[in-house]
């Protein structure tokens, strides 16, 4: 699917239990490759700092089921500053598109001080982000942490992820602080599985998923963590 010049992908989300996870993982290991970014234990940590405007538009549009929406986040991996991405996740119904741009640690730290001089506004995504900050009051709202195990396949650019121990740091939005106390919101034996693909889900992968993916949900990690942190 294409929308406003961007290619969109299917995104399906499920809550699964630990027993189904073990069975699914054993099958997927025979059909797909592990994410090359994974560590020795097969996981890597994702930390995302989500932004919303003065009216909490991203939060309430998700709750209302608005068909076309987007949200901004800054993402790091394994609590490292070697790769920092500004991302805009666009959603149209059940389809997603993700735009990204690299940021430096210095730029992000300046941003947190409301110093926007280091933003490269020649980049379209960064310029839109800056305009949302200045025009809509976009501000950091919550950090979302979890551990991800991912498998990839070149057919239809298929990607399946298992997200574990979804947690929210309660006392700070400092994305570089590795010692923030965090509350676990989705803990074992429950996990979140996401299935992403382009035009079609390959039949051999679909067959491997049939018995496990039983509880499809409109899961938003951002919403779960915002509600918990702000007691909304």
Plain-language structure description:
- By secondary structure, this protein is an alpha+beta fold.
- It has one domain: mRNA Triphosphatase Cet1, Chain A, CATH 3.20.100.
- Helices cover 26% and strands 42% of the residues.
- It is built from 6 helices and 13 strands.
- The strands form 2 sheets. An 8-stranded antiparallel barrel has the order 3-8-7-6-5-9-10-12, surrounded by 4 helices. Strands 1-2 form a two-stranded antiparallel ribbon.
- β9 and β10 form a beta hairpin.
- α1 (18-31) runs antiparallel to α5.
- It is globular and about 50 Å long.
- The mean pLDDT is 92.
Short account of what is shown:
By secondary structure, this protein is of the alpha+beta class. The protein contains six helices and 13 strands.
The tally of structural domains comes to: 1
Elements, N to C (H/E): EEEHEEHEEEHHEEEEHEH
Oligomerization status of the protein chains: single chain
Helix content: 25-40%
Mean of residue pLDDT? 92
Largest sheet: 8 strands, antiparallel, barrel
The best one-word shape is globular
Going by CATH, the homologous superfamily would be VTC, catalytic tunnel domain
CATH class: Alpha Beta
Q: Radius of gyration, rounded?
A: 18 Å
Output the strand order for the largest sheet.
3-8-7-6-5-9-10-12
Question: Structural class, please?
Answer: alpha+beta
SS strand fraction? 35-45%
Strands, total number: 13
Distance between the termini: 35 Å
Query: Low-confidence spans: pLDDT under 50, at least 5 residues?
Result: none
Q: Supply the number of helical segments.
A: 6
CATH fold node name: mRNA Triphosphatase Cet1, Chain A
The CATH architecture can be named as Alpha-Beta Barrel
């Amino acid at each position: 699917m294409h929308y406003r010049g961007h290619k969109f992908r299917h995104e399906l989300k499920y809550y699964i239990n630990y027993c189904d996870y073990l069975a699914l993982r054993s099958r997927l290991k025979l059909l797909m490759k592990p994410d090359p970014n994974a560590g020795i234990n097969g996981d890597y940590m994702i930390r995302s700092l989500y932004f919303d405007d003065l009216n909490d538009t991203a939060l309430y549009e998700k709750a209302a089921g608005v068909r076309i929406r987007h949200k901004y986040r800054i993402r790091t991996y394994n609590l490292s500053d070697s790769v920092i991405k500004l991302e805009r996740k666009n959603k149209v119904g059940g389809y997603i598109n993700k735009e990204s741009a690299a940021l430096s640690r210095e730029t992000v730290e300046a941003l947190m001080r409301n110093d926007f001089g280091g933003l490269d506004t020649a980049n379209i995504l960064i310029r839109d982000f800056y305009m949302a900050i200045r025009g809509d009051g976009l501000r950091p709202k919550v950090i979302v942490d979890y551990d991800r195990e991912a498998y990839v396949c070149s057919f239809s650019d298929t990607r399946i992820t298992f997200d574990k121990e979804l947690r929210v740091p309660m006392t700070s939005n400092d994305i570089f602080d590795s010692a923030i106390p965090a509350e676990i919101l989705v803990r074992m034996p429950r996990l979140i599985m996401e299935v992403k693909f382009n035009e079609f889900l390959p039949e051999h992968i679909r067959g491997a998923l049939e018995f496990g993916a039983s509880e499809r949900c409109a899961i938003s990690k951002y919403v779960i963590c915002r509600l918990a942190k702000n007691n909304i």
